[in-house]
Amino acid sequence: NGNDGISIAIDDLFGLHLLFPTCFHRNLIKLSTPTKSETPITKNLLQASLSHFSTANQPPASAQAQPPGLGPTKPHDKPRVVVLGSGWAGCRLMKGLDPKLYDIVCVSPRNHMVFTPLLASTCVGTLEFRSVAEPIARIQPSISSAPGSYFFLANSTVVDTENHEVHCETVTDGTDTLDPWKFKISYDKLVIASGAQASTFGIHGVKEHAIFLREVHHAQEIRRKLLLNLMLSDVPGLPEEEKRRLLHCVVVGGGPTGVEFSGELSDFIRRDVHERYTHVKDYIHVTLIEANEILSSFDDRLRHYAIKHLTKSGVRLVRGIVKDVKPENLVLTDGSKVPYGLLVWSTGVGPSPFVNSLGLPKSPGGR
Amino acid sequence: NGNDGISIAIDDLFGLHLLFPTCFHRNLIKLSTPTKSETPITKNLLQASLSHFSTANQPPASAQAQPPGLGPTKPHDKPRVVVLGSGWAGCRLMKGLDPKLYDIVCVSPRNHMVFTPLLASTCVGTLEFRSVAEPIARIQPSISSAPGSYFFLANSTVVDTENHEVHCETVTDGTDTLDPWKFKISYDKLVIASGAQASTFGIHGVKEHAIFLREVHHAQEIRRKLLLNLMLSDVPGLPEEEKRRLLHCVVVGGGPTGVEFSGELSDFIRRDVHERYTHVKDYIHVTLIEANEILSSFDDRLRHYAIKHLTKSGVRLVRGIVKDVKPENLVLTDGSKVPYGLLVWSTGVGPSPFVNSLGLPKSPGGR
């Protein structure tokens, strides 16, 4: 009764979850076990109260006056490992930590790990978004259940190596009415694995008009825009040129991400667009712009193979350097204008402001 | 070669698609069939051109000067059925239309149908979003392939019954750089099935702070906010009261949608939150606010069953009328303030401005 054997699973911010079919209107249609209760409705309604908002059980003001956070561990406590970031490094480390020996605290603006090599495939539906994201609580379950282990959806702003503390601020994207909440966490061991950020080389308009391909929400945005443009380009009377612009997909950066995404896109065009968007199939094109050679860090043979394969798939390879990005076109250093409907920016990564701010020894490249 | 037997499926704006695992980096790692080509890279890159942007093939200016759109069908053409909307009525009708007898044109701001009775289940992960949405092209395939049949992602603004024309405007949400494109469609038969819209009864702040539950993106927003609040409430040092506010889920409106959603939410709390968010499980509560009786259009027995079931599940039923909605609390007509972290508004629907604007006979209630 009330437990109909259906498991509910919910995982993360991006709709990652398991699929369990449920019965139709399961809270309403259960007339096979009717209730005899004749409780008048009004009584039930009036009995309800909002008593849980009473402040009677709050800690005294003095307790709240101390700076919020997790204070230093006591001598008999397990040592606390604080991990900043939830990427490859942070997650691999947390997976290997024994929660019997350590309390694990993860601070990251993202509650899941992204399997980045397959992210490009999710943009065109080859893979589902949830297939490339793994909730941290599934990588290290103790963070959601052990008394001293936590996951905090927050950014770290300062590392105070003197006092063995990290200063953090909650992420509040989307709930703009809420000020970020600041707190401190004392650490016994600190792991800085907060990752890099996409490089724009200071080119104007990149952040505003291009989409990166580093997070699941980037892939979702690319997919949304691609489909929107496919549908918009089909409206009657749209000038030919505008149709071509809407369906011109431009990828800047010929590294693994840009090449992989261009390939996925051309596969998508040759298969799905030709089958499902037959009205506009001859208008869609992919251009990959790279300043030097594509896949420059790879072996020659592989590079030639990729070039041949991309060209054969209809991807236009253009050698050029982007100077400026405007809402509907970008300008190369040779002055040529490239109109686009979708612009994906994948020119590599550099150190984040947080990592730059750390007064610690770094690897070459500032990371 | 280039066709590795993997089907790509992509369906709609909300990430609806089939899952086909793909091989890792499939466009790159295929060294078992290396290419012998020694084409220099530069040649390939320089050969590329943006020639598809030449305007040589455009129709002459005179052709573009005529008002864009689909003109009247000719005597020997199939009659054109124009369907406004992609809800239950419009989709059921299109499904039954024979594309051999009619050209079908659907105009809707949504490229899929939503199976609304199960929408509440997607908010907490019981169901996947794609399980409650069906692409229109799958309901009536001819709209994406037949020469005279189309789906237009657009809103209809005016019905000109005199000239048998509908005036439309493309939807441009998310691509704000694009002005809406206006066009006209001549119809032989017109089906107005554009649906109703959520009622706010003119209460201030509803549109800004509450979430409706009528579209897939509403369900996504609810889920996102619920999970965000669960994570935010776990940060160290947050005052008790703020924690309770963040995790107070308030549903306004005790119709089928509100009752179903409250039930789903309490199931989610009793199962998933208790298991996966153990740190904050005692802070989360659901309140259902209704001005009259819940499920007032249903049978007494069913109503009593629902009340008993909801109460038992921990849902607080409150009889009250909302006067004002602020970012973090709402005010009832009796003056009491109800703090909330998530507010879902499901007080029924009324006619849309478009339907109001039509000078046609309507059913009682203005629809």
Mind sketching the topology for me?
The structure is a homodimer.
Chain A: H1 41-47, H2 61-65, E1 69-70, E2 80-84, H3 88-96, E3 103-108, E4 112-114, H4 119-122, E5 133-135, H5 136-139, H6 142-145, E6 150-160, E7 165-170, E8 182-186, E9 189-192, E10 197-198, H7 206-209, H8 216-232, H9 240-246, E11 248-252, H10 256-276, E12 285-290, H11 300-312, E13 315-319, E14 322-325, E15 329-332, E16 337-339, E17 342-345, E18 349-350, H12 353-357
Parallel strand pairs in A: 1-8, 2-3, 2-9, 3-6, 11-12, 11-17, 12-13
Antiparallel strand pairs in A: 4-5, 6-7, 7-8, 10-18, 14-15, 15-16
In words, what does this structure look like?
The structure is a homodimer of 367-residue chains. With 367 residues, the first copy, chain A, is an alpha/beta fold. Chain A folds into two domains: 68-196 and 352-357, 3-Layer(bba) Sandwich (FAD/NAD(P)-binding domain), CATH 3.50.50.60; 206-348, FAD/NAD(P)-binding domain (3-Layer(bba) Sandwich), CATH 3.50.50. The first copy, chain A, has twelve helices and 18 strands. In chain A, strand 2 (80-84), helix 3 (88-96) and strand 3 form a beta-alpha-beta unit. The longest helix of chain A is centred in the C-terminal third of the chain and has 21 residues, at 256-276. Residues 1-66 of chain A have low confidence and may be disordered. At the A-B interface, helix 1, strand 1, strand 6, helix 8 and helix 9 of A face helix 1, strand 1, strand 6, helix 8 and helix 9 of B. Chains A, B: This is FAD/NAD(P)-binding domain-containing protein. Chains A, B: It holds the Pfam family Pyr_redox_2. Chains A, B: Residues 80-363 form the FAD/NAD(P)-binding domain.
